[in-house]
Each structure stands twice: as C-alpha cells, then as structure tokens.
Amino acid sequence: MSLIVLVSASGSPGVTTTALGLASTWTRPVLLIEADPTGGSAIAAGYLRGSVTPPEGMIELALGHQNGRLLDALARMSEDLPGTAARFVSGTRSHAQARSLVGLWEPLADALRSLEDTGQDVIVDGGRLGLFGSPEPLVAAADLALLVTRTDLVSLAGARSWAETLHERFARDGATASLGVLLVGEGAPFRAREVARVLRVPVLSSVAWDPAGAATLSHGAEPPQARRWHRWVGRTDWTDSPLMGSLRATRSAITGAIRANAERIDTTGRGRHA
Ligand SMILES: Nc1ncnc2c1ncn2[C@@H]1O[C@H](COP(=O)(O)OP(=O)(O)OP(=O)(O)O)[C@@H](O)[C@H]1O
Ligand SMILES: [Mg+2]
Questions:
Q1: Each residue of 91-120: pLDDT tens digit?
Q2: What percent of the chain has pLDDT over 90?
Q3: How many angstroms separate the Cα of 161 from the Cα of each of 138, 143, 274?
Q4: Smaller CB count within 10 Å for the chain: N or C?
Q5: Distance (Å) of CA 250 to CA 129, 223, 245, 254, 274
Q6: 7 phi and psi, to 5 degrees?
Q7: How many Cβ atoms from other residues are within 10 Å of residue 116's Cβ?
Q8: 76 CB-near residues (< 8 Å, 6+ apart)
Q9: Does the Cβ of 211 fall within 6 Å of ligand 1?
C-alpha cells in the first residue's frame, strides 16, 4: 500500500481533478479518499454530476473510529467510482462537520498503514492546507505528499510558505524525498526548474493544461472528442488527450519515486518508515 496525498496552498490549482484523474489511470487497486474539509463532495457534484448521493463517508469513518471500528467503516464506506476501476470514500457534506474530522486523521493514517499487505494504494484529496480540519496528519504519514500548484506568480507566492513549512516538517523526519511539487500547466509562465528553485522542493511531474479534459473530471462535462487521426484508427475515447497522457506520466513518476524511496530506506534505514 502506498499513501499519496495531494494538497494545495492557495487558489484552486486542480487538486481534486488531478487526484481523480490519477485514480482513474491507476494500474493497481486504488482507493480515492476525499479528505478536503471544505465540505460538499466535489466529486459527487462534479464528476458524478449529482447523479448519486454518496453516503457521508468521512463522517461515518469518524463515527467508526469513535466506536473502535474504523477499518469496518472504511470497508463499508468505500464505493465503486463509476467509469473507473477505483474505489472512493466521499467527503463531508458541510464545512461544519470539519470538527468531527480533526481526531480522525491520525487513526486513519494508522488504519491505512495496517492495510499495507492488501496491495491497494490510497490517493487522498487533502484540499487546501491550513483549513480547520485539514488532514495534515495524512500529509505527514504519506509515502508521497504532493503540493499541487499552477506556475504563475500569484500561485507560486501562495505556495512558497507552505513549501517551506512542509520541507521543514519532512526534513525533521529525514523524509524530504517523500515531498514533491506537482505542477498544473507547466510553463504558464514558469518552467519546472524555475518553480523548484523558488519553492526549494523538487517538481515531481506536471499535469498538462487541458481545460476541456479537466472539465470532464471536475464538472462531469462530456469528454472531448478524440482527434480525427485517432478516430481513423478506431479510437473514440479521450485517453489520448493531453490531460490523460500527462496523468499517466505522473502516475509513473509517483510510483517510481515511492519505489526509489523504499529502496533507499531499505539500504540506509533513514526515512519515513524507518
Ligand atoms: N490540468 C488542468 N487543465 C485545465 N484546467 C484544469 C486542470 N486541472 C483542473 N482544472 C480546472 O481548474 C478548476 C479547479 O479544479 P479543482 O476543483 O480540481 O481544483 P482544487 O484545487 O481541487 O480546488 P479546491 O481547493 O477549490 O477544491 C476546475 O474548473 C478544473 O476543471
Ligand atoms: Mg478540490
């Protein structure tokens, strides 16, 4: 089991879209957890267009924890995510429920860790850092925590102080290799190398700027038409869109980084799970 947590510092750079897109391209069993304490399941309202009313996943997990049955609640609250092979735990309905989440994150991190041998990875949409009820203990426990940002100056100004704070926290654990930056729309205007220099955290990967593809994930819009030359060879889906291509590349970068960290921990004994 690998725990991958996506968060942002400011704005709405595309955390939910990217987390969902990654889950939909994952090649191993994967559980997507909507842990953004803002409230109102963005995935149910957006990607699923309100077609289903998911159970109050996070609240049920909090209750399960209070009753000493967190793992049972996790199994009960995970549902199939339509159109993907992923499972999904939906977020809270309201920001007012964030209070119930505060005591959940640490035990949830432990519970997820106890699933180590199931072969199921976990991707967490952690929302914006610094909110009341933010899942920072999950960030701290992650095999890979990714600060998602766009590359314009305003976004980078917002991301900078959180990059610094996260870097300090991970450095204290000797786990800086478990922290990275994920760009949405590299080169608009700054390139990965420039962003890494400003944020002083390595850029792991970039997700392509693709508003039409992104709207399919974030708002349940119709997938963009396949390009003509793809249709000629009988491909009608959007798997060849810039967004999906970059999500597959990001998935490989994530799994590669986690594998490299695990190998390094095995040889040096230093790192997140030492
Ligand atoms: N790769 C992308 N290319 C173009 N637009 C994108 C991309 N990723 C996300 N978007 C768009 O950006 C907007 C915000 O996306 P999303 O809701 O995923 O952000 P977020 O970081 O989860 O925001 P919040 O903090 O409000 O939850 C949406 O309209 C979405 O379609
Ligand atoms: Mg979001």
A1: 888 898 888 899 999 999 999 988 877 889
A2: 73
A3: 19, 22, 28
A4: C
A5: 22, 20, 9, 6, 26
A6: -140, 165
A7: 12
A8: 60, 64
A9: yes
**Which of 134, 146, 182, 218 is the pocket-test mutation for ligand 1 (most atoms within 8 Å of CB)?**
218
Question: Which ligand 1 atom sits nearest the alpha carbon of residue 208?
Answer: 1
Residues in the 5 Å CB sphere of ion ligand 2: 15-16, 42
Q: Which ligand is nearest to the CA of 217?
A: 1
Give me the DSSP letters along 201-213.
S-EEEEE---HHH
Which residue's CA is minimally distant from atom 13 of ligand 1? 14
CB atoms within 10 A of CB 109: 21
**pLDDT at position 31:** 96
In this prediction, residue 116 carries a pLDDT of 78
Ligand 2 geometric centre to CA of 235 (Å): 30
Cα dihedral sign for 232, 209, 166, 137?
A: negative
Q: Distance between CA 77 and CA 97 in Å, rounded?
A: 17
Going by CA atoms, what residue is nearest to atom 26 of ligand 1? Answer: 12
Residue identified by tokens 């997700």 is: 207
CATH code linked to domain 3-268? 3.40.50.300
The residue contributing the CA closest to ligand 1 atom 8 is 14
152 versus 242: the higher-pLDDT residue is 152
- CA–CA distances in Å: residue 65 to residues 5, 74, 80, 250: 21, 10, 22, 33
- Rounded CA separation 15/46 (Å): 13
